[in-house]
Specification:
The protein contains 4 helices and no strands. It is mostly helical.
């Protein structure tokens, strides 16, 4: 109905909640769980290998993701939070952020990207090194 207010705080607080919802869903639900988690289960089964080629790289990828999540939570708990939207475009990221919340969020997103890259390196190496060729029947 008209006049109903969903978030009874400032517009910046609404932007902060939307920002962190988008960041957490994309960088901590879709990428690690769907691609990394399911990929770590499915790829060795499809290749009939006992494990991925670099299990320590999987571990490093996991800890980069934890470090990234801690930076993003620290960004949320800073003075005002980062209300820049999950795309982090300039109009919202440049105004109203006097503290280091945007910097911490960008630093956390970079580490989430490093985590995804290390997992992708492990997938590609596993696919290239653990595949075996089957000779065709003539």
């Amino acid at each position: 109905m008209p006049g109903y207010v969903l978030v009874e705080t400032s517009f910046h607080d609404y932007n902060v909640w939307i920002t962190y919802h988008g960041i957490l869903m994309i960088f901590f639900m879709v990428m690690p769980i769907v691609i990394g988690g399911i990929g770590n289960i499915i790829v060795p089964i499809q290749l009939a290998s006992p494990d991925m080629v670099f299990p320590r790289l999987n571990n490093l990828s996991f800890w980069f993701l934890i470090f990234s999540f801690m930076n993003i939570k620290l960004s949320f708990c800073s003075e005002n939070g980062c209300g820049a939207g999950w795309t982090m475009y300039a109009p919202l990221s440049a105004i109203g952020h006097d503290d280091s919340s945007v910097d911490l969020l960008i630093f956390g997103i970079h580490f989430a990207g490093i985590s995804s890259i290390t997992g992708a390196i492990n997938f590609i190496t596993t696919l290239l090194k653990m595949t075996w060729t089957v000779e065709p029947y003539y």
